[in-house]
Amino acid sequence: MTTAPAEGRNARRKERTRAALIAAAQQLLASGRAQDASIKTITELADVGFGSFFNHFENKADLFDAALTEVAARYEAWLDTRLDGVTDPLRRLSLSIRHTGRLHLSHADDAQLLIGQTTFLHAGKPALDSRIRADVVGAIEALSADAAGRTSTVIAATGAIAAVLAAAATLPQDDRAQLADSLVADVLRLIGADSSVIDELVSEPLA
To answer: Containing domain of residue 136, as a range?
Structure first.
């Protein structure tokens, strides 16, 4: 009769330990201390036992990967609420970039962590790469272009979008929205959108 409650307590304790480790990893990433942090440092910051680390993660890189993936999922959920009902690919891309460029204004910690996806721990496989790439490819295809044959354009556009977070972090708040809107125009121009379409999308009020 006591097995089920005990199992429930154990599961909740394991969830709390994993959450504490991920929170510690996110704190280290945001502060730029992830690369030099040892597992001992991480477990002390999380206030969990050293041995418990390996009950959840194989190594430090595995933990930071999970920490960044969680932030990316949170960001995607936030962005999806702002794109609800938007089906036009060019408009979706425009709104994605404009909202992302403003992320620092409402979710500074998450924005800082998303910048961390370009660190050594996540080099070449950012958690948002597939989402960003899909938005760009969808917009290119909406313009009756061959996205598969424009690999360099896709790479350039996705790189520009990823860079807006890092650039926005260095600017005064009033300049961040302008940066995002300028990036929209540059990316849409790069993939072949008409000037009239670009002007309309960039001037669209944000909800």
So the answer is: 67-202
Give the DSSP letter string of 133-167: HHHHHHHHHHTT--STT-HHHHHHHHHHHHHHHHH
| Whether residues 127 and 150 fall in one domain | yes
Q: State the residue for tokens 């807006």.
A: 164
Domain count, the chain: 2
What gap in Å lies between CA 193 and CA 187, rounded to an integer?
9
207 located within any domain: no
Exposed/middle/buried for residue 170 (C-beta within 10 Å: 0-12, 13-18, 19+): exposed
pLDDT tens profile 35-85:
899 999 999 999 999 999 999 999 999 999 899 888 888 888 888 898 999
CATH no. for residue 11? 1.10.10
Res. 87: pLDDT tops 90? yes
Asked if 78 and 107 count as a contact pair (C-beta separation under 8 A), the reply is: yes
pTM of the model: 0.75
* Cβ within 8 Å of residue 121, ≥6 positions away: 29, 34, 35, 61, 64, 65, 68
CATH at residue 161: 1.10.357.10
